[in-house]
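User: Round two. Same drill as before: sequence, then structure, for each protein.

Assistant: Same drill it is. First protein:
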Amino acid sequence: MKIPIACLSLALLVLATSAPAQEASNPFIKKPETAKPAAPPGPSFVSLLENILVPPDLLDDWLREHPMKQDATALRAAVQDWVVEGKAKLDHTALNLGTAGRQTTNESILETIYPTEYAPSGTGAWPCPTAFDTRNCGHDVKTGLSQANGIQSLWSEMEHVEMVSSKSYQAIIERTRQPSDIFLPKFHLKRINQRDPNESDDPTDPFAKPAPKVISNTYFNEPHGLVFMPDVVQLAGRFDPTFDANPEGELSRLVFYRGSIATVSKDKTTAAPDISRLSFRMVRVSLLAFSSWLQSHPPLSVPTQCWEATESWRKEGKAESAGELTTQARPGTKSVLKNIEEYIYPTEWLPGNDTEVIEQWEEGKKKNDKDGVSTMKRMKITPRSGIDGAGLACAFDTRNLGNTFEAVLSSDEQGLVLGCNWERVLHLGDPIYHRIKVNEEWIPNITMPLFSASRLVATVRVQPGQWTLLGSVSEYLETRKLDHEHCLLVFVKIE
């Protein structure tokens, strides 16, 4: 029987038009959430978050003589003196620029790949890692300015993760490994945030135990952020070295916060200036020089005055260019600049072994309430000798190295507004995860790349014709350690 084409087309049309109606009325079909439009950018703010490592005994002695309450200005000044004297160490300085109602992200990450599964390799050989996972170590900072009930609140949420060691749990590996080889890692995590006491631990879980009903603090405008007073240096947190068996010589981590809110100008901009070019520039500077300069400058002056200071550091040999990207720009459009290298690397490996079935049998097994038969095998695994025992890479992935900028330029009554997303990814090296024995020497066999990633996400107000500091991030070294001598400043300029 032939079906007329017209009838077939009509049937398809009926099905196509009725399907959305059926889905809309079906309570078991999950409705996609519509993204809420972003609130218009409000007043500008600048926040500074500093991680400094100090000897705990030196810190305790100072606190005994100088009781501290809310204002930590005196402690911050004393710590800076300890840094100059070599008694303390600058670890991470995150300067953030943003606007009210928009979260700012500042990340300095070391992408640490570690093994999650091993395959046996027989007598006299290392077990072979066959699957891996990634943990983002480093500093992750979220900041913002909230406005609710007539109250402006500066808030921040911060996290620091560090891989302090790794262990193999295999005797042959522990006898033949090198200190930098990576196995099952041991991470230390430090986090600072706050929650509204009315908020559930997991708001997406309908079976989660509800939080007790208490009077909510009006300052909890951002439920996970730690709230700070503007224009006051505050100690956001202290972390002493409590995890190691022998903490002698270890340093305490102090986290300082300082931020300011700009006053909204009453003068309204009548027309947006004619903009045709957008430029980003990265400058690597001395961390000590930048930190010392910050102590004598109010936060709101830093974005516009830092470029002049950077030029003077360049003449003194304390700063160097780390790259620039420039493109044409037009308000209302999204500008994307990429200067990247596509780096392909293995993600899974097969061990270099010979396998032999030495016993095989069948066993009854039920599956889905049905009787079945399962075939069981006992295998003999023999590692191949020498270079023939090398692992085989069997799956791959790609990582984009280099710089990526995405920016959207707009304007409102207060002037130009730039929403931007900057990311910088570097390949630092190839740590060793597996070795094989060749001519009585244990040589590298399986390696995985070590990537560092720095990222800034912010919505900022900019003035045309001048370099504006978007933020500061840290960089990692090939040793998997943070560079305590330098930091990276990211500037933007519109013309």
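Second protein:
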Amino acid sequence: MTERLMRVANFVDPPKRLLDPAFLTRVCAHHAGRVLARRFAWCPTVRDKQEPT
């Protein structure tokens, strides 16, 4: 991903290349994973409710 962004930033590739469906899918999946991880990070688990033995 970084390589593709750098190629567009340095005018090696046209900006339309960033609209490639495969590239957009990877970007969306990355951001969706971060949002889901943040959303469920605060959820208590069963381990949190158990008292130490």
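The helical segments are 2-9, 21-40, 46-49.

User: Perfect.
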